[in-house]
Write a structure and sequence with these properties.
Blueprint: H1 5-13, H2 27-39, H3 42-48, E1 50-53, H4 71-79, E2 85-87, H5 92-105, E3 113-116, H6 129-133, H7 138-154, E4 159-160, H8 184-199, E5 214-216, E6 230-231, H9 235-242, H10 244-251, E7 256-259, E8 263-264, E9 267-268, H11 273-283, E10 289-291, H12 300-303, H13 309-319, E11 324-325, H14 329-339, H15 345-361, H16 374-379, H17 384-397, E12 399-403, E13 417-420, H18 446-453, E14 460-463, H19 475-485, E15 488-494, H20 513-523, E16 529-534, H21 543-546, E17 550-553, H22 561-569, E18 583-584, E19 622-624, E20 635-642, E21 646-648, E22 652-661, E23 667-677, E24 688-697, E25 702-710, E26 716-717, E27 723-724, E28 728-735, E29 742-749
Parallel strand pairs: 1-2, 1-11, 2-3, 3-4, 5-7, 6-8, 7-10, 13-14, 13-15, 15-16, 16-17, 21-29
Antiparallel strand pairs: 8-9, 12-17, 18-19, 20-22, 22-25, 23-24, 23-28, 26-27, 28-29
Helix pairs in contact: 1-8, 1-10, 2-15, 3-14, 3-15, 7-8, 7-17, 8-10, 13-14, 17-22, 18-22, 19-20
Bound molecules: beta-D-glucopyranose.
Residues 61, 63, 117, 161, 214, 293-294, 502 line the site of beta-D-glucopyranose (BGC).
């Protein structure tokens, strides 16, 4: 059976109500586009299929400076109709000038599409996507995506190369930071929410920003986490783990996607017809257009798949790439490829049609100056409302990993605080990767945030101690002096923003030795230490850092970093985030994820570990598991009930439990439902997340949480790539992380005709 998109979606996102996949293009739009194509020369068609860096308004994006056209040349190309899309330039005045070249000076006047990497904010920088996923609150991501869309479209953009929906199970891979972590259901929920947020309800509105879920597909599955590396993957894993977030994004209305740089099973994604056409369009029913990634078509030569650039262009187009990013290969070779018979013109027409449909769908053909409003540019960007939202989402993204009781700090108490570490007063690493439109001096650093929250800011001492990677002279000595004089130490350590993101694969996911040494020296003094970790991936923590009195995962939080951290430290907000990635004990456990397989020799008794599936040097569990995150209050769960111990084939069961806030502060908990299929025709993970629900309770308050489960939730990709559920026994846990929880069991029955 082919890939059943609806079933995959239902399996991936459970009970979430989805809009039915939209019918993207109306009949009159089709006729209009066809009429236009009939008038286009081959060169103009190739132009529509070409997207180039906007060298009129250069920024400093993290791409190699390959093939950048100078301004004069780019203007000429636009006037000749040899460009369909520009990317990574912002600003309304410049965009208007450029659009005029396309509309007034080119023969057919087809407007340009303006695209850009607005990954977690334009000017107001929200937490990196991985951080935001820690909120376990897709509705929050939808709100921040909407705010990003308001800013991006006010700056003249029509499309963002986001969300990244790649599942990341190896923390050595630097791009973990751009996605929603290791889990299929969580990533699917965030994928759909972000698409909805970017695009809004009506694509024609001038504040609707087209989404481009990327990188199709399995880009996060590169071997050893090596960026741009190879992916060798089974059909089952591809379909069960890596495709559902794309399905969710398409169902939420995404009309573009981007092919991955990597190869899958020996074929580079950019040239993989089975992937980009048979699977993406034939089985997943994707209706929009496909971008190549940055010069990825040209890279088919280095892959050893195309013999030269001309061949690379041909292979990418035949595979199903519609829009070439940055190489310029399409415009250079398409006319000749078609004339020589190496490429059918009909194939080109299909690609151009897809691109023009999308331009039509956002109203660009009717109004080329859509989203180019100088007034909006002054009122919709970096607004106080967006700042407030950035603070709220940053506060929601901070995970309390451990706490001996030292937190929250009492804002009324006169205590001396030493803020030590390379990130205490640092402003260069607040935003994280992919925030290159943001103004670096507009972010609130930790020291500033703390001072604003303290009754007496003079009680704060700030000492750097060491650089991110290097020792500094007298650094540790001055830090020790400050810590000795303080009542409590806040240790702001971790990764700089250039240590994660694209091309930042690391073999060791630990703190740089200079920072570990600083942490050891501070711990030796014996003052309570709160670690404020900055990072774009899960880290393996050791010794003084792992043994600190409290540890907070603060990722890269964006514009409001300092305020959000202060809100949590002083208890103005209760931490309620959960880990979207498992923190292993050691780097060498990677790839590590919670929904792994049992193996034939699982460790069931920690005293009997010989000849078991574990490393000789470390337990193969997590230091902090997926879904883990503490609160300042205490939540307890009780009274797990299943409406029926038998789940009939076409029915559902209801699962309920009582959640109680048994502490003395208000707080929020994310209740998580996991299952395990005990016996199946394909071995199943030891646990799989199926549902999440965020609940906010006052002290002493209880609430019953309810979930419904049906057969679809139990399906997996079995033999012949069929999605199937198999009758039999299932474990179920309702808990506060992927470890422990209330346990129940049920049995799935095939319902006999006329019975039950
Ligand atoms: C990245 C894409 C990004 C593109 C444009 C590439 O290097 O892989 O995710 O959208 O550059 O900046």
């Amino acid at each position: 059976m082919p890939f059943d998109r609806r079933a995959v979606l239902a399996g991936a996102i459970g009970a979430l109500a989805l809009p039915s996949p939209r019918r993207a293009f109306a009949a009159d739009e089709v006729a209009r586009v066809d009429a236009l194509i009939a008038r286009m020369t081959l060169e103009e068609k190739a132009g529509q299929m070409t997207c180039l860096a906007d060298s009129f308004r250069p920024f400093n994006p993290p791409n190699p400076q390959a093939g950048i056209q100078d301004e004069k040349r780019l203007a000429e190309e636009i006037r000749k109709g040899r460009v369909g899309c520009l990317f990574n330039g912002i600003g309304v005045a410049g965009a208007r000038r450029t659009q005029e070249m396309a509309v007034k000076d080119s023969r057919l006047g087809i407007p340009l599409l303006f695209a850009g990497d607005v990954i977690h904010g334009l000017k107001t920088i929200f937490p990196v996507p991985l951080a935001e996923a820690a909120s376990f609150d897709p509705a929050m991501a939808q709100r921040t995506a909407r705010a990003m869309a308001l800013e991006a479209t006010a700056a003249g953009l029509h499309l963002t190369f986001a969300p990244m929906v790649d599942i990341a199970r190896d923390q050595r891979w630097g791009r973990v930071v751009e996605g929603a972590g290791e889990d299929v259901v969580l990533t699917s929920l965030f994928a759909a929410a972000r698409v909805r947020g970017f695009q809004g309800r009506d694509l024609r509105r001038d504040d609707s920003l087209l989404a481009c879920p990327k990188h199709f597909a399995a880009y996060g599955a590169v071997s050893a986490g090596l960026e741009y590396g190879s992916v060798d993957i089974s059909d089952e894993t591809l379909r069960e783990t890596h495709l559902p977030p794309f399905g969710a994004a398409f169902a939420a209305g995404a009309l573009t996607t981007m092919a991955a740089f990597s190869e899958i099973n020996g074929v580079p994604a950019t040239a993989d017809r089975e992937l980009l056409t048979d699977l993406l369009r034939g089985e997943m029913h994707f209706r929009g257009f496909v971008f190549s990634d940055y010069t990825a078509d040209e890279e088919l030569v280095a892959h050893g798949f195309a013999k030269d650039d001309r061949d690379a262009a041909r292979l990418a187009i035949l595979a199903g790439v519609d829009m070439s990013m940055q190489s310029g290969l399409f415009v250079r070779y398409i006319p000749e490829l078609v004339k020589s018979g190496a490429l059918p013109e009909a194939t080109i027409d299909v690609a151009v049609r897809r691109i023009l449909y999308v331009k039509t769908a956002i109203g660009l053909l009717d109004n080329p100056f859509r989203s180019l409003d100088a007034q909006a540019e002054t009122t919709r960007i970096a607004t106080p409302a967006h700042r407030a939202l950035a603070r709220e989402s940053a506060t929601r993204s901070i995970v309390l990993l451990q706490n001996s009781g030292v937190l929250p700090l009492d804002p009324g108490k006169r205590q001396k605080i030493a803020l030590i570490g390379p990130f205490g007063a640092d402003r260069a690493n607040l935003y994280g990767p992919w925030a290159f439109y943001g103004d670096p001096d507009q972010g609130v650093d930790i020291a500033t945030g703390l001072r604003a929250a303290m009754a007496d800011p003079a009680l704060l001492t700030v000492v750097q101690g060491c650089g991110v990677r290097d020792h500094i002279e007298d650094g540790i000595a001055s830090a020790v002096v400050a810590a000795t004089a303080a009542d409590i130490v806040l240790l702001a350590i971790g990764e700089s923003q250039d240590m994660s993101g694209e091309a930042q694969s690391r073999t060791v996911i630990e703190l740089p030795p200079a920072q570990q040494k600083l942490a050891e020296a501070i711990a030796a003094i014996g003052k309570p230490v709160v670690v404020l970790l900055r990072h774009g991936r899960a880290l393996a923590l050791h010794d003084a850092v792992a043994n600190a009195q409290a540890v907070l995962a603060t990722w890269f939080l964006g514009s409001e970093t300092g305020h959000a951290i202060a809100d949590i430290l002083f208890g103005k907000a209760d931490p309620s985030a959960k880990l979207p990635v498992s923190f292993p004990w050691e780097s060498g456990q990677e790839p590590f994820f919670y929904d792994r397989k049992s193996t034939g020799r699982p460790v069931t008794d920690e005293h009997q570990t010989e000849y078991k599936a574990r490393f000789a040097t470390t337990d193969n569990s997590a230091r902090y598991p997926f879904g883990h995150g503490l609160s300042f209050t205490r939540f307890t769960m009780s009274d797990l009930k299943l409406s029926d111990a038998a789940l009939r084939w076409d029915r559902a069961i209801e699962v309920t439990a009582k959640l109680t806030n048994s502490g003395d502060r208000a707080g929020s908990e994310v209740v998580q439902l996991y299952i395990r299929d005990r016996v199946a025709s394909r071995t199943r993970p030891i646990r799989e997340l199926k549902r999440i629900e965020r609940v906010t309770l006052k002290p002493g308050e209880s609430r019953t949480v309810r979930f419904s489960l049906s057969r679809v939730d139990l399906e997996f990709v079995g033999a012949g790539n069929q999605r199937i559920a198999e009758p039999g026994e299932f474990d179920l846990w309702l808990g506060q992380s992927s470890v422990g929880g209330l346990h129940g069991m049920f049995t799935l029955y095939v319902q006999e005709q006329g019975k039950g």
